Amino acid sequence: MGAAVGAPEFIASYWTLAGPVLPRSASQVSPFRFEDRVRAAAEAGYRGIGLMHDDLRAVRARLGCPVMRRLLQEHALVHLELEFLTDWFADGNRRERSEALATELLEAAAALDARHVKVGGDRFGATWPLSQLADGFAALCSRARDSGTRVALELLPWTALATPAQGLKLLRAAGWPPNGGLLLDVWHLQRAGVPWIEVAALPASAIVGVELNDADAQLQGSLWHDTIHRRQPCGQGAFDLPGFVRAVRATGYGGPWGIEIISDQHRALPLADAAAVAMAGARSLFTP
Questions:
Q1: Do the Cβ atoms of 246 and 3 come closer than 8 Å?
Q2: Are residues 50 and 80 in contact, defined by beta-carbon separation less than 8 angstroms?
Q3: What are the pLDDT digits (tens) for 40-97?
Q4: Which of 16, 37, 39, 188 has an alpha carbon 20 to 30 Å from 274's alpha carbon atom?
Q5: What contacts 131, CB < 8 A, 6 or more positions away?
Q6: Phi, psi of 49, deg, nearest 5
Q7: 68 and 34 in contact (C-beta within 8 Å)?
Q8: pTM confidence score
Q9: HSE of 200 in the Cβ direction (CA atoms, 13 Å)?
Q10: CA nearest neighbour of 234 among 248, 218, 214
Q11: Cα(167)–Cα(155) distance, rounded to whole angstroms?
C-alpha cells in the first residue's frame, strides 16, 4: 500500500498518546505522565509530540518549562505542537477567553520552542465576516511570530473553514502571514468531501502541518462521534491514504507529519503499544 519512498519525521499528536481521556471532556489531562509519554514517543521513533492546553497547564505546574524542554531535548523530540485555540475571530466574552488562552499557549511556545499552535474555526458552525476572520488570524500570527512559532489553521468539517479553498481565501485576506498556514488532517478533509486533487494543488507555503489516521468509508454516527470514537491507525480503515500522501508530496511540503489516532480501542492501549501501533501504520505508507 506504499505511496511514496522515504519516511518523513513524525509527531505523536496529543490524542495518540493521551490514553483514556476524551476531547472536550471536563478535564483533558492525560493520566500518563509527560515524561513517560516523551520516552514512549522517542522509543517508537517519533521526532515530536503534542500537548493539549489542559495537559500543558498541568505539566507546567508540576515540572516547569525548563524541565519539560530538557526532557524533549534529551529524547531528541525536536517538534512540539500545542493545541487548541478557537474564537480568535469572535466578539465579547468568547474573544476575551480566547485571548487569555492564546497568551498562555504562546508563552509556552516561546519557553518550549514549539513548532506551531493549532487553531480552528467556529465549532458551532457559524459563519463570520471574512474581514473579521482575516484580522483575527493576522493578529494571532503576529503574536505567534513574537513567540517564535507558527499558527496552524486546522480545517474542520463542522466549521466554515473546512476546505483548502476556504483556508486559502482566509490566508490571502490576512495578507498571507509567513508563519501562518493550514493543517491538513486526512480525517477532516475526507469527511468534508475534499478530493485529493485539491490538496495537490496547494502551494507548499500554505501548509504548516499534516496529520494521518484512518477510518471507515462511511461516517459512523455524527461527525463528532466519528472523530473521537472511530479514528483508526493507518491501514486499518478505508481511506485512500496513499493517494493523500501523494497529493501532499505533490505540493512540495517537506515538514513533519502528525499521527492523530482517536478511538475507544486506541485509548485503552498501554502507552508503549499506542505509540508503536500508530507509528507502524503511518510508516507503512512510506514503504516502497
A1: yes
A2: yes
A3: 999 999 999 999 999 999 999 999 999 999 999 999 999 999 999 999 999 999 999 9
A4: 188
A5: 173
A6: -150, 160
A7: yes
A8: 0.96
A9: 10
A10: 214
A11: 7
Cβ neighbours of residue 222 under 8 Å, at least 6 residues apart? none
In the chain, how many domains are there? Answer: 1
Residue 3 in any domain: the answer is: no
- Type of residue at 159: T
| Domain contains 5 | no
**Is 86 domain-assigned?**
yes
With H, G, I as helix, E, B as strand and everything else as coil, classify residue 31. Answer: coil
Please, which residues have CB within 8 angstroms of residue 111's CB and are 6 or more apart in sequence? 65, 66, 69
Residues 111 and 65: beta-carbon distance below 8 Å: yes
List the one residue out of 165, 213, 166, 210 whose CA is nearest residue 187. 213
Separation between Cα atoms, residue 21 and residue 54, nearest integer Å:
11
Annotate 136-150 with three-state secondary structure: HHHHHHHHHHHCCCE
Cis amide bond preceding 32, omega within 30: no
Q: How, if at all, do strands 79-85 and 116-119 pair?
A: parallel
The CATH number for 145's domain is 3.20.20.150
| Residue range of the domain that includes 229 | 10-284
Q: At 134, give phi and psi (nearest 5°).
A: -65, -45
The pLDDT tens digits for 225-268 are 999 999 999 999 999 999 999 999 999 999 999 999 999 999 99
Question: Which residues on neighbouring strands pair with residue 158, listed in sequence order?
Answer: none
* Grid cell of 194 as nine digits: 475534499
| Distance of alpha carbon 251 from alpha carbon 238, whole angstroms | 24
